[in-house]
């Protein structure tokens, strides 16, 4: 009997039998119908496992760890993460009180439908959804959502919004919808606000699905999500609850109609000295098919054509040589989400830390020269194995990292410090005085940190490249469209320290000159 055998792990057939017995009721119509039901369940099980393996991290997939057990464990961790996020939200909303002076207006479902129709009726790719910050359930969703997501409106009833997101985007959704970081809807619907300004708030990207398509697969569509905070009056419960109102706009491939004009197919990226993506411009989404979270934290070389990866070593040698000054380089081939390559013309710059004289991060500006053959960059790749970390990626990345550990000695790296008036850092031969530069008229007026930030903000809104006069040096901060906040704080700290040094040096020089003049007079 089975009791006489020692315990052993269940085989795949036994495991399937367990799943089958849990999902299928015993058939009374004969053996053939029962076998047919089991075969259908088995096919669905294998299909689900295959889809789960597609979401397995590339670094683990390359090490041969993408077994069925490890894949299921990874899926279980994702489920626990979602559950933990939900519990965190509930604790946050229960324990935290509303900040004083925080204006959050209350709306009924009818009022939400009326105010959001201004956006949904003008654009057939936009739908509005209000999600409870207490339960995570959908409180309101516009009728347009069902046609955009190719599903029935009933699927949203009493459902949690995160259930319609692809698993890897759930954490992104939670991080961008922290309640008290959201702008109030009433603030952007005031008399001085316009619908365009309302849509320019902090946005993020997620993939949403309305359910299974004709072939039985989940079809996810990319959306640009713009979140707002409001209170919604619940007619059934007779009370108000905090909700996140989301304006979701579907993103289409930039190579399909209506196409992005060739001269506008530009995006920017930043990466660390060890060649890991740090930030990706949102303009890259319709051009590459990736959402920002797909690339951030991944190796840059992983997305390049294998033959073009050695070019990046030459690029970073030039980055070290130019030390913060922008330059153009040869084109490279970048892999889009559908597995095809596009050709991009690249320009590069960097931010050099004035104190350590080392490159802190690298900025790239890319313009698409040649698009993919398959214009739908959001399509699933033909090869489902995912990208694999080749040995040359690790080797070249390490060479680049060692290269950028060197100190920049090029005169270009010294110029910004001289312009900011930091005594002792202007040049190797500086004596701390700027009298000579002022007399000869060679000193160039320095830009304030506020002016630089204002220029970057204007560039982002105009969606255009930086164009300065030949007499004005192009700073790394002016090349950036969406730099992380910590870099802005670093620049502000550097600017403040430089001003203090300049004030101290100027006072010392003025006192020395004044004393010398009086001594000569006597």
TrEMBL record:
<dbReference type="InterPro" id="IPR057310">
    <property type="entry name" value="PER1-3_bHLH"/>
</dbReference>
<keyword id="KW-0963">Cytoplasm</keyword>
<feature type="domain" description="PAS">
    <location>
        <begin position="280"/>
        <end position="323"/>
    </location>
</feature>
<keyword id="KW-0804">Transcription</keyword>
<keyword id="KW-0805">Transcription regulation</keyword>
<keyword id="KW-0539">Nucleus</keyword>
<feature type="compositionally biased region" description="Low complexity">
    <location>
        <begin position="1"/>
        <end position="21"/>
    </location>
</feature>
<keyword id="KW-0090">Biological rhythms</keyword>
<feature type="compositionally biased region" description="Polar residues">
    <location>
        <begin position="22"/>
        <end position="39"/>
    </location>
</feature>
<dbReference type="GO" id="GO:0005634">
    <property type="term" value="C:nucleus"/>
</dbReference>
<protein>
    <recommendedName>
        <fullName>Period circadian protein homolog 2</fullName>
    </recommendedName>
</protein>
<dbReference type="GO" id="GO:0005737">
    <property type="term" value="C:cytoplasm"/>
</dbReference>
<feature type="region of interest" description="Disordered">
    <location>
        <begin position="421"/>
        <end position="445"/>
    </location>
</feature>
<dbReference type="InterPro" id="IPR050760">
    <property type="entry name" value="Period_circadian_regulator"/>
</dbReference>
<dbReference type="GO" id="GO:0032922">
    <property type="term" value="P:circadian regulation of gene expression"/>
</dbReference>
<dbReference type="InterPro" id="IPR000014">
    <property type="entry name" value="PAS"/>
</dbReference>
<keyword id="KW-0677">Repeat</keyword>
<dbReference type="InterPro" id="IPR048814">
    <property type="entry name" value="Per1-3_PAS-A"/>
</dbReference>
<dbReference type="Pfam" id="PF23170">
    <property type="entry name" value="bHLH_PER"/>
</dbReference>
<dbReference type="GO" id="GO:0043153">
    <property type="term" value="P:entrainment of circadian clock by photoperiod"/>
</dbReference>
<feature type="region of interest" description="Disordered">
    <location>
        <begin position="500"/>
        <end position="522"/>
    </location>
</feature>
<dbReference type="GO" id="GO:0000976">
    <property type="term" value="F:transcription cis-regulatory region binding"/>
</dbReference>
<dbReference type="InterPro" id="IPR013655">
    <property type="entry name" value="PAS_fold_3"/>
</dbReference>
<dbReference type="Pfam" id="PF21353">
    <property type="entry name" value="Per3-like_PAS-A"/>
</dbReference>
<dbReference type="Pfam" id="PF08447">
    <property type="entry name" value="PAS_3"/>
</dbReference>
<dbReference type="InterPro" id="IPR035965">
    <property type="entry name" value="PAS-like_dom_sf"/>
</dbReference>
<feature type="region of interest" description="Disordered">
    <location>
        <begin position="1"/>
        <end position="41"/>
    </location>
</feature>
<dbReference type="GO" id="GO:0000122">
    <property type="term" value="P:negative regulation of transcription by RNA polymerase II"/>
</dbReference>
<dbReference type="GO" id="GO:0001222">
    <property type="term" value="F:transcription corepressor binding"/>
</dbReference>
